[in-house]
Amino acid sequence: MKWITREKPKIDRIACPWLIKRFIDTEAEIIYMPFDEVLTKAKELNAIPFDLPNVEYSHYKDQCTFDYFLKKHQLNDAALNRMAAIIRGADTDRHDFAPQASGLSAIFLGLSQNIKDDHQLLDLGMILYDGLYTWAKYMHQQKHTQSPAEQLLLEVYHKYLKQGNTKKAPEWTIELKEMIQDQLDTNMTLSLQQVSNELEINPSYLSREFSKYFENLSFGEYIRKMRIEKAISLMETTQYSLTEIAYLTGFSDQSHFTRIFKKQMGQLPTIYKKSILKSKKNTNS
Question: Is residue 22 over pLDDT 90?
Answer without folding.
Answer: yes
